[in-house]
Amino acid sequence: MDLYFRYLKWILTSLLLSLMSMTGLWAEEAAINATTASSGWQNNELKAASKRGEKIYQAKCIACHKSDGAGMPPIFPPLKGNKFGTNVVSDHIHIVLNGRPGTAMRDFKDDCSDEDIADVITYELNAWGNNTGTLVIASEVQAARK
What's the per-residue H, E or C state across 47-89? Predict the structure, then answer.
C-alpha cells in the first residue's frame, strides 16, 4: 500500500509540474507575443521614419557627413558610431535645429519641418550600425523649438 501511495504521489506531482511548466510556457509565450505586437507598430514606424529620413539626409546632410556617415573629421564629424549623437537625443535635435556655433554645422530650423528633422535624426540614430532603435517624433522637435 505504501508503494501505491508513493507511485500515486509521484504521478500527481509529475502531472502538476507538467501543467505548471506548460502554463508558464504559455504565459511566457503570450507575453512575448504581446511585446512583439506592441513593438511591431513601433518597428514599422521606425522603418518608415528611417526611410523618409534617409531621403532628407541625402538631400541636406550627405555633402558634409558623407553617405556612410563617416564625415570628414575634424571639420565634419562622423555620425556613424558618434556616442554624442546617439546618447542624448535632445542634444541631437538641438544641433540640427540650431546648428553649432563656431563650426560648419548650420541650422535647419527654417528649412525643415518638425517631422523632417525627427525623421532625419531617426535615420542617423539607426543607420551605419548605430542601431539605437530610437524613434524621434515631431512633437519632440516641436518642443525643442520653444
Answer: HHHHHHHHHHHHHHCHHHHCCCCCCECCCECCCCCCHHHHHCH
CATH of domain 41-145: 1.10.760.10
Closest by alpha carbon to 22, among 14, 11, 33? 14
Please give the pLDDT value at position 39: 56
* pLDDT at residue 103 in the model: 92
pLDDT digit string, tens, across residues 63-106: 999 999 999 999 999 999 987 666 789 999 999 999 999 999 99
pTM score above 0.85: no
Residue 61 sits at φ, ψ, to 5 deg, of: -120, -25
Q: How far apart are CA 65 and CA 77, in angstroms?
A: 7
Parse the chain into domains and list their residue ranges: 41-145
Q: What is the dihedral of CA 105, 108, 111, 112, to 10 degrees?
A: 130
113 CB-near residues (< 8 Å, 6+ apart): 138
